[in-house]
Design a protein that fits this description.
Layout lengths: L18 H7 L11 H9 L20 H5 L11 H19 L6 H9 L11 H11 L7 H16 L6 H13 L6 H17 L6 H13 L3 H13 L6 H13 L3 H13 L6 H13 L3 H13 L12 H20 L4 H7 L6 H14 L3 H13 L6 H14 L9 H16 L9 H14 L2 H14 L4 H15 L2
Helix pairs in contact: 2-13, 4-5, 4-6, 8-9, 8-10, 9-10, 10-11, 10-12, 12-13, 12-14, 13-14, 14-15, 14-18, 16-17, 18-19, 18-20, 20-22, 22-23, 22-24
InterPro entries: PPR_rpt, TPR-like_helical_dom_sf
Organism: Lasiosphaeris hirsuta
Keywords: Repeat
Amino acid sequence: MVKPRQQRPRRSPPSSLTKAELLALVEPCDNEESGTLEDHLQYARDPYMRGYAPADGPTVTIARSKQDADYPSPEEVTQPNDEERQILWSLRFAVTTRLKNREKVDLDTIYETYQRLPEPRIPYLSGRFRHQLLRALGQPDKKTSKSMLRYFAVIAEIKDCGIPLTRAQWNCGISFASRYVGVSTETETEAALKLWREMEFEAGLKGSDVTFNILFDVASKSGNFTLAEMIYKEMESRGHTFNRYHYVSLIHFFGLRLDTSGMRAAYVEMVEAGEIIDTVALNAVLAGLLRSGEEAAAERLYERMKASASGKKDLPTRTYASNRAITQALLMFAKIGRRHPSMQPTFQDVALIHPDIRTYGILINHYGVKRGDLGKIAKFVDEMKFFQIPLHGAIFLALFKGFSHHGGQMRSAWSEQRLLSIWSAFLRAIDEGVSGLEIKTWLAMWILQAFHKCSTRDRVLDIYEALKERWHLDEADEQFMIDFLSKLVNR
């Protein structure tokens, strides 16, 4: 792939962004008043402004005590024999280690150790240890169907023992049900709503602001905007206050509706509310602008994000654990900043707004998969090096999808030679054990489709063998790939 000359952001002394500068990061609509966030929500809710009164929401009370949550105490657990005591010690050590350093113990080890206990297993665990186990299982490296089923299996055993779940554990279950796949559909939305109903009407626990944000997020991403508006209205009627989660979800909501005026209004209100603006919020705006066809505005926002890194060296690498800690810190900073406005600029200066792996995933998916602009893709990949961002699996997936969509045509920039260059980089990254990169069925399918579009049948078979040597798939997924390959080469 021919790479354009790298243009690094201009160096200038870093300084704290004022409210006006934060607002200026996202341009207003041309010759149009954006209006307030409430204006746009009201319009989305009732486009003809009929003004129907909303129905009263259900009134639910909470009846939970600390004794319920902490049951059983260490003295009340089922007394283990020597073998069971050794299993419990191994499980406790694995869970504690995982919560301190997630890299040292994987969740498969924890779950397999847990399953070695005789049934029913839950009575062997004290209340405190049970919460630690669920917290560990509820924080996988990535939400997948496997991690979801593992979490729900333990939840089912807890419910079978008549032990109540905490609100945080219900929220985690709802999050799993809605986010274990990359793209949310009506299926995930219905699963999340079913758990919410069970939480409120069977367990008697009223949903929190976190619960409603999860529900709003999955409804929006599944394209069920009517349901999303109902959830938002219910959240309002219960008096839940907004925080950064809700504002980012609203930005995403309006972006999916292709309503950039509403999206800008949500961003402005987020700034005015004193929330800390970071890359996550700007990525939501960037995705909405590109989805709505405002490429020029999106590229100017990207340039401002790049410029924010001027003069800053050794930009930190974001991980799953650090992302959680950073989000909690930003929520705390916003809360303190509202109480002590003079401190808000200092907190904002701590937040990073430079491009991250998600930024480049958004850009490469749009310009590569949708537009087929390989020149821009080369530019973005080159600029990733400046920010020390490795070629994550999501980036390779977008690149191979681009070749599958736009390759195989005479004099196309998406040529077999360039595809082989990407393939070589991919193999090198896999063999070097780059973090966040593994061969799953979805990625393998797009790689094979890319070579089927751009190369020969024999090359596709060679690529399949190279993938097979490096993947770690279970028997069902291996058979799926065999069937997929057979259909592909015999088209």
